[in-house]
């Protein structure tokens, strides 16, 4: 019998969390769905292989491990399984992408699947996400980024930010069910046929912006993207990467974040549009950092952001040789 939903969990350095995520799917309430789980380990440097392989003995045929020799990143890691599923004579109708640092709170698998069944033009449905400690809703539904949002986000001046609220990327936490531009890749279900139609994740991205790009291409093909707050998962943001807005040190962003920013804006806005957006982001950052220092308040942008953005985004966009490929982790 064909699988109804294939769940994909891409792991890097968080094997016990990945096990908990898989267990939350396996232990969900009975729903009549045929579900299979795939865990991709992206060549984690620790004992992830051993820990996951030991858990696989308990799981049996319900979970398939893909123990990779290289770190593919998020999109390419998912693509490994997505392409295998699509090549089957009877592929599953839906795929559910779940972060290893997330676990089901409600039966999000059944709830998202039922929504897609009832809405034939919905290509993606994302669940609500709550903080794993407080269980309060967190941001998980978004608008596509553009020039206005990039400038105001970097400048980070309260009155201006509020005045431009309709252009901000993130919707507030806890919004009701609605169609949006894109949803968090930490917990999203998609039609496999819709993903295949757009060629799955773009392999140019290592990490960050890959799901934004994916849903941008799907929306251009006429597919809808929906946010379903009643389906809930608990999420520990940044458990694998350490990149989180809640980090008080505002650590520098990794090199691949800047590469992904540049890829996304070039692919969606063209070279000229990417240049305008990049200048807006950089000028906003410089002005935002300056006003924080003048007011003797902590700088809100990540450390070295203006310098790193100039090196990794502005220079390549304006003709300088791009920097060498960054370390993947």
TrEMBL record:
InterPro entries: Glyco_trans_2-like, Nucleotide-diphossugar_trans
Domain Glycosyltransferase 2-like residues, every copy: 95-233
Molecular-function annotations in GO: glycosyltransferase activity
Pfam families, per database record: Glyco_trans_2_3 (PF13632)
Keyword Kinase attributed: no
Enzyme class label: transferase
Coiled-coil regions, chain positions: none
UniProt-listed Enzyme Commission number(s): 2.4.-.-
Keywords attached to this entry: Glycosyltransferase, Transferase
PANTHER family documented for this protein: RHAMNOSYLTRANSFERASE WBBL (PTHR43179)
Protein name: Glycosyltransferase family 2 protein
Organism: Tabrizicola soli
């Amino acid at each position: 019998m064909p699988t109804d939903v294939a769940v994909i969990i891409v792991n890097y350095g968080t094997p016990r969390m990945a096990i908990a995520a898989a267990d939350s799917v396996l232990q969900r309430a009975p729903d009549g769905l045929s579900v299979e789980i795939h865990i991709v380990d992206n060549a984690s440097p620790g004992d992830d292989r051993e820990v996951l392989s030991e858990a696989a003995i308990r799981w049996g045929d319900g979970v398939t491990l893909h123990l990779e020799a290289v770190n593919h990143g998020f999109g390419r890691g998912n693509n490994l399984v997505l392409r295998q599923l699509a090549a089957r004579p009877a592929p599953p109708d839906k795929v559910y992408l779940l972060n290893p640092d997330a676990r089901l709170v409600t039966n999000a698998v059944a709830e998202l699947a039922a929504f897609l069944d009832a809405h034939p033009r919905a290509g993606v449905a994302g669940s609500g996400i709550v903080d794993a400690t407080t269980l309060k809703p967190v941001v998980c539904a978004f608008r596509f980024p553009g020039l206005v949002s990039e400038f105001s986000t970097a400048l980070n001046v309260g009155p201006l930010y509020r005045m431009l609220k309709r252009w901000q990327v993130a919707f507030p936490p806890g919004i009701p069910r609605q169609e949006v531009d894109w949803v968090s890749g930490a917990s999203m279900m998609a039609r496999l046929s819709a993903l295949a139609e757009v060629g799955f994740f773009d392999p140019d991205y290592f990490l960050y912006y890959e799901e934004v790009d994916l849903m941008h291409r799907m929306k251009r093909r006429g597919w809808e993207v929906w946010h379903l707050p009643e389906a809930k998962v608990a999420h520990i943001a940044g458990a694998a990467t350490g990149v989180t807005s809640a980090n008080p040190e505002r650590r520098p962003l990794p090199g691949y974040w800047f590469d992904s920013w540049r890829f996304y804006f070039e692919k969606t806005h063209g070279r000229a549009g990417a240049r305008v957006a990049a200048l807006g982001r950089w000028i906003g950052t410089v002005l935002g950092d300056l006003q924080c220092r003048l007011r003797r308040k902590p700088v809100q942008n990540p450390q070295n952001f203006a310098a790193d953005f100039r090196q990794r985004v502005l220079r390549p966009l304006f003709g300088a040789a791009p920097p060498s490929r960054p370390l993947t982790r």
